[in-house]
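Components:
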Amino acid sequence: MAPKAKPAPSQPAPPPALEDLFTTLNRHIQASAYDNAVKLTDQILAIAPGDEDALRCKVVALIKNDRVEDALSAIHSSKKQLDDFHFLKAYCLYRQNKLDEALESLKRQESNDETMLLECQILYRLGKMDACLDIYRKFQNSKIDNMEINSVAALVMAGRSSEVQGMLDSL
Amino acid sequence: FPPAFQAISRNPIVLDLAYNMIEFPPIENRMKKDRKAKGGFISRIFG
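Structure:
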């Protein structure tokens, strides 16, 4: 039996401490205790620098705590080029009203529902209502809650209030 | 006096819908396996 047990350590199992930290982190996330969640991600990143799950949890927790400035520095602190962090970065820049930079960051990410929603909100703030409405039209048949509120706002700001009723009727 | 109330236009409401799309990544696979799975793993080695 003993020789059989020997190959086990060669398995690339993560150190158990890390698993414990993720378990605790998950508990904080479920409880919306974002300050504690950030502390846990810092502990994980101290042991495993460059852990993408931990970094993503940290950035999201910071955003949920309205600390977009800190979220941005967390993204920038990563030495790796993180491809799917562009959306989060764009969102932080949008919250800081750095709209052109936000658009720039969004362009680096493959387009999906979340990037298009954010793009609409950026275009709205930039006053580009027609471009904004073009994207909203693509969402018309998707089931995103409260989507119509932003579409109506864009129509009104575009001076196309007369189209509002028709848009709402078509839903 | 007092002057009559007047209606003024206001900017329409815009919601931050992108915020709702921001979610934590799934980390279940990074957590400690539950006891049942662990028991199975240990018994596979030592059983």
